[in-house]
Amino acid sequence: MFATEPGRLLVVGNGASLAPAQSVALNFLMSGRVCESPVDIVAQHIAAKLLKPGDVCLAVSDSGMNHFTLRSAQLSVESGATVIGVTSYGGSELAKVADHVLIAGAGFHDWNGSFVT
Question: 4, 79, 84, 24: which is closest to 47 by C-alpha?
Answer without folding.
Answer: 79
